[in-house]
Amino acid sequence: MLASLLNVSHLVQVFGYPLLFLLVMGESSGVPIPGETGLITAAVLASAGKLQIELVIPIAAAAAIVGDNIGYLIGREGGRWLLERPGRFQSQRRQVLVTGEPFFERHGPKAVFFGRFLLGLRVWASWLAGATRMPWRSFVVWNACGGICWATAIGLLAYFLGHSAGNAIQAFGLYGLAAALIGLASGFWLHRRHRRHTATADGPGAANAGRRRRGGPEPGPEPEPPR
What we know:
By secondary structure, the protein is mostly helical. It has one domain. 82% of the residues lie in helices and 0% in strands. Helix 4 (53-84) crosses helix 6 (119-131), helix 5 packs across helix 6 and helix 5 (90-115) crosses helix 7. The longest helix is centred in the last third of the chain and has 66 residues, at 136-201. The protein is flat and about 65 Å long. It starts with a helix and ends in a 13-residue tail after the last helix.
């Protein structure tokens, strides 16, 4: 993996904001380089006072938007030709368009937005959107929303949690970390629900059963009011 070959932390620390912009823009335009790793590293460096998080987040968001639009133009101008041209794997390449076009017609905005948080889609979603002729106005709106939300979420998470957050996000991805947090919250909620259900089940019926076990009298019917 390219991210493991490059000392991204050292490079970002030395070259700062310009390198952050180039890494994020390059990954977003379809080049498999560690753009998200650069954002995480820059946010961790900001938490150590070596960069400013107020600049890291908008620079990463702007780079993501610019890179995605470059990828969209590449996919729109040349992506279809690459997928349709004769040669090896022609049927498989054509199948990408057969599957991708109706998918982007139905789920294009969601794919562009949520693809920003997934490694595979983050690199190729803009190409596929362009190659399948997704309307540019719709693409640019959801691309901007995804880029801003992605840069803000990843940047702030890595900034406030520091190195431990950076290692967790790189190892498991943002969705893996979110899934762990959701799992913990769900377990706590189920435990509380079970306790409430048990308390409800141990109401008057449980009290009467306890009296029968102890040999005590069961409560009789309430007396009728005097007429």
